[in-house]
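hiii so my PI (J.) wants the whole complex modelled not just the main chain, which honestly fair. so below is everything: two entries, each one labled with what it is. i double checked the lines twice but i was tired so who knows lol
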Amino acid sequence: MITDLGRRLGFLVLTLAVASIVIFVLCAWLPGDPATTLLGTQATPAAVKQLQHQLGTDRPITTQYVSWVGGLLRGDFGTSYITKLNVWPQIESRLGVTGSLVLVGMVFAVLIAVPVGIFTAVRNRTVSGVAVSGLTQIGLAIPAFWVGILLSFFFAVKLDVLPPGGYVSFRVDPLEWIRHLILPGVSLALVQGAVLSRYVRSAVLEVMREDYIRTARAGGATFTGALLRHGLRNASIPVVTVLGVQLATLLIGAIVIESVFTMPGLGLMLLQGVGNRDLVLVEGTVMVLVGAVLILNFLVDLLYIALDPRLRRSR
Amino acid sequence: MSAAVIAVRRLRNWSAVLGGLLVALVVLMTLLSFVWTPYDPTFVNANAALVGMGHGGHLLGTDAYGRDTFSQLLVGARVTLLAGIIAVGISAVVGVPAGILAGMRARWLGEVIMRCSDIVFAFPALLLAILLAAGFGASTWTAMVAIGISTVPIIARLARAATLQVMATEYVLAARAAGRNGWWIARRHVLPNIAPVLIVQASVAFGLAILAEAALAYLGLSTQPPTPSWGRMLHDGQGYLFSAPRLSIWPGIAIALAVLGFNLLGDGLRDLLDPRQRDRR
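here's the output for the full assembly
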C-alpha cells in the first residue's frame, strides 16, 4: 500500500510538472515578448530593452520558468502586465464564488442522481425504467450552459422569482447567497446528475445480484428492505469515487456556468483575461484550476484504496 | 426471454435507427447549406431586425442584426460537423496507433505510452482550449485541436484494451508461430478485430466534441463572428431573452439533437456489434 501511495504521489508530481511546462510554454513563451507587445511598433530598441529588463523577460527562458514555478510555490503568481495588479489576491478573492457554485452543484447532482439511478435500476426491464433511461440520454445531450439560459428565461425573466445572475457572499446575506446559487447550481447539476445516475444505476444493478440480497430475502425481508439495508452501502463505494472525479468536472463546468450567470468567479475572470490577452493572469488561474483538478483526482484515488481493501494488493 | 426483454432490445435497435436519422439530418443540413439557404446568413439588415417567426419570409425569424435564423442554423451545422470530424480525426490518428502499439508491446514502451496518455487525460479540455486561445488567439482550429488532443487518451486506452484481448487469441499465436512480424499481425488481425469497438467510441466521441465546441463557441473561444455557429448564436441571443427568447431556443435544440443523434447511434451500434454488452447495462 505504501508503494502504491508512492506511485500515485509520484504521478501527481509528474503531471503537475508537465502541466506547468505546458502552461508556461503556451502563455509565456509562444506568444512572444510582452515588452514589444506592450510598447507597440513605435518603441525605440532602448525602451524595449529597458522594459524587458524590468519585466525579467531578457533572462533565458529556463530561468524565467524556474522563477515562475518558484513564485508559485511561495504563493507569488506574478503581476499582470495589463492591469499591473498582483495575480494571487485576484484569484483568492474569487475562490469563494467558484467554490460555492461547485458545492451547491454537487449537492443538487446527488439529489437528482440517487433517486433516478435507484429507480431505473429497480425497474430495469419495465417501460418506466426505459423512459427514465431515455431522459438521462437527453440529459447527456443537452449543453449545461443552454440549460442555464433556459432556466434563467423561465425563473428570472418569465416568473421573476430568482435573480438572473450575479452573486452575493454567504457572509453578507445567506438567503441571497442560496437564491443566487439555485439556477447556476441546477444547470451545473442536471448534466452531472444524468451522468452520475448511470453509475448509481449500474452500482445498484450490481448489488441486486449479490447473494446477500437473496439471503436477506430468504430471511423474510422485502426486496426494497433488503436493498435499503444491505445494498445501498455496498453500492455507494463506486458511486463515492465517481462523485470525487465529478467534483473536478464540476469545477471545470463552473467556468462555463459562471459566464452564463455573470458570477464573478475564477471562470469569468479567466475568460476576461483571455479577452484582454492578460497572459500572466491566465497562466496563474489555469495553473490553480489544473492543480485543483489533479489533486482532487489524487485524493479520489486514495479514497478508493481506503474504501476497497481488494485494491490494496492487486495493483 | 420475457416480452419485456424483447421490448427493450427492440428499443435498442430503435436507438440506432433514430440516432442514424438525427445524424443524417445534420449531414443534410450541412450539404444543403452549401447549395441553398433562404437568405445570406451573414447579411445584416437593420430594417428586418428581430422579425418574429414566419414573418417576412423568415421561417424562424431574425436576430438583432436582421440575420435570418434558419439560414444561420443551416450554415452553423458545418462548424458542428467539422468540429466532430477534426476532433475525432486527431484522436483516431494519434490514439489508435498509440493504443495498438501499447497493446502489442506491453512492456516498457506500452507503459510509457499509457502514462503519457494518463497525463493528457488529467488535463481538462476546456483549460487546454483556453490556453490555446490565450496563446494563439481563439479560432475554430484552437478549439478543435484542444478537443481532439483531449479525446486521444480515451481512444488510446480503448484501443490498447481491445488489442490486448486480440493478442491473447490463438490465431495471433499461430501467426507468430508462422513467423509473421508485428506489423503484419497489427494490420491483418488486430485492426479488423478492434475496429467495431473503436467505431462505437468514435460515435460517442463525436457527440462529446460537438458539445465541447458549442460550449467553447458560446464562451467566444471557438469560431469567431461573422461565421455562424450554434454556440455563438446562443451567446448572441442571450441578450434578447426578454424580447426574443426564440433566439435562445433553436440553436440549443439543434445542438441537443445532434449530440443525441451521435450518442444514440453509438449506443445502438454497441448493442448490434457487441452482443455481450446487451444485458449488462
